[in-house]
Design the sequence.
């Protein structure tokens, strides 16, 4: 049985191999916008596809951050619309929401942003933070830091592994 994420990664790897060199970073950026692939997965796709590591990392991170920015801005607009609507009934908290809020109160925006990619795609974490009322610019700043950190770490690991094997 095939795994949809694995199929998607293989599809992006094949696409990188088939397009001209100048278009390859755009494919990597597109892969970075996909939840569960993220900037770090996209950087790995690009590096394995033969793109220089720095170019692959920047392209993957930019694609991831652009997608996160769209999610944050959309979530902020929805939150504003919902909270300004008069007479809107308050929804009971779900178990998942309560778990997120406990993590948020324990680690704050920096901790949730930096540790979140270990459990959830950055798009999900960013939407959850924004929906709880964290200012969008704060969410974007910390998500950018997390994307840069994790993309850099994975890029260094992949580059080291390739050099060790070669």
Sequence:
């Amino acid at each position: 049985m095939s795994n949809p994420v694995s199929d998607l990664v293989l599809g992006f790897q094949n696409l990188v191999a088939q397009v001209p060199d100048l278009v390859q970073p755009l494919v990597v950026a597109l892969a970075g916008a996909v939840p569960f692939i993220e900037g770090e997965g996209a950087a790995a796709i690009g590096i394995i596809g033969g793109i220089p590591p720095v170019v692959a990392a920047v392209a993957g991170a930019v694609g991831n951050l652009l997608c996160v920015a769209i999610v944050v801005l959309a979530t902020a607009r929805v939150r504003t619309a919902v909270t300004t609507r008069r007479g809107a009934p308050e929804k009971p908290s779900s178990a998942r929401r309560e778990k997120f809020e406990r993590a948020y109160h324990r680690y704050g925006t920096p901790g949730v942003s930096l540790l979140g990619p270990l459990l959830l795609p950055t798009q999900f974490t960013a939407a959850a933070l924004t929906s709880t009322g964290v200012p969008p610019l704060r969410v974007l700043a910390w998500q950018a830091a997390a994307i840069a950190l994790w993309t850099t770490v994975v890029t260094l690991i992949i580059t080291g592994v390739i050099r060790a094997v070669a």
Notes: The chain has a mean pLDDT of 90.
